[in-house]
Amino acid sequence: MDKKEFVVLGGGPSGLVLAHSLIDAGVPREQIVVLEKEGVAGGLCRSVDVDGAPLDRGGGHFLDVRRQEVLDFVFRFMPRDEWALFDRVSKIRLRGMEIDHPLEANLWQFPVEDQADYLESIAQAGSVRGEPMPESFAAWINWKLGERIAQEYMLPYNRKIWSMDPDALGTYWLYKLPNVSFRETLLSCLEGKPMGALPAHGTFLYPKEFGYGEVWRRMGEALGDSLVRNCALESVDLEKRIVNGRWQAETIVSSIPWTCWIGCADLPAQVLADVNSLKNASINVDYSPQTLDSPSHWTYEPDESISYHRILLRANFAKNARGYWTETNAQRSKPTDGVRFHNEYAYPINTLGKPQTVARILDWAAGNGIVGMGRWGRWEHMNSDVAVAEALQVARDLMAKGAA
């Protein structure tokens, strides 16, 4: 039996950063092993070469610039001079136009009659009128943003990306949506300029010569023998914390989907029921060689007659690239003879009761020497910079616990 202080499940950004952070904190490299089911580290952030240029096979991923601690860590493996800096250009297709994202900040780009439609709707929104906040997702979106933005953009977009009734989703995660001030929106339309704060990735970095997956590939290579590729989870002896019959851990760190534990460990009935209740969206990424005439880095498509929900114009951020790729919920995808990458685990879905469910799973895990972290360990949508920041903190917490 190969005894390890830490066995990390998953070689995506969370697992890679955690392993390096533990080594930085003084854990001997030979006391850490990262198990990755694919042949290359990086998880959803992996890149491949398609048609002579990089394509991010897990969908669009970019490095936000707002967390200095994250940048400092990432630049150790891919120095700053290997990254290009971009001011985000993202669009929404509505009413036959492409409007800058976020919509509520850029209604002034519509013709005056359309502006009046949206302004009238925002003025009547329940949140603006001081009405009580509803509990259902669809009602909440109408209450928050007004009926027109809800019906033309937010509700169809969410139906597309999740392929389920919006009212099966909780509202606990919608704090991320901005408050829509009728006064600010009106002033924006009158003055003909955007209002409000920039969204995530308002300014972002993307590799000059590679796809986004290159930095994670390098991070995996830097782990040497501590990264074991082509090694999916097969079994966990919970009592002895033995993984795949080979590695015995003092602590198991799981950054893989909890549903991958089913059949690999003797989960208690309640935990098994909780894990089975977790939902995720599978996404297909399809490549097209056509180069579109648009300045956008990516564009949101709420029209439900079109299968994909987002299009990424890689020629506008990847060097020497042409064409674009689309992201489509796998349930909505149409057959293709072109280049397609299927991502079974793309997005955790924020279903009703999910926070309580995940809390119970994590409580059980902690009692068994298991730590859940990252997008799948916490079953929470995290951009890669957030995942890195969390992994850095988890490493500090683990070291502090060990010192205590």
Task: Describe the protein.
This protein has 404 residues and is of the alpha/beta class. The protein has 2 domains: 2-88 and 206-403, FAD/NAD(P)-binding domain (3-Layer(bba) Sandwich), CATH 3.50.50.60; 102-191, protoporphyrinogen ix oxidase, domain 3 (Orthogonal Bundle), CATH 1.10.3110. Helix content is 31%, strand content 22%. It contains 12 helices and 19 strands. It has helices at 13-24, 68-74, 112-123, 126-129, 137-145, 147-162, 182-191, 213-221, 269-277, 354-366, 374-377, 384-403, and strands at residues 2-9, 32-35, 47-50, 53-56, 63-64, 83-87, 90-94, 97-100, 203-207, 227-228, 236-237, 242-243, 247-254, 280-288, 298-300, 310-312, 324-329, 340-348, 370-372. The strands form 4 sheets. Strands 1, 2, 10, 11, 12, 13 and 19 form a 7-stranded mixed sheet that branches. Strands 8-7-15-16-17-14-18 form a 7-stranded mixed sheet. The chain has a 3-stranded antiparallel sheet with strand order 5-9-6, with no helix packed on it. The two termini are 27 Å apart. The mean pLDDT is 95.
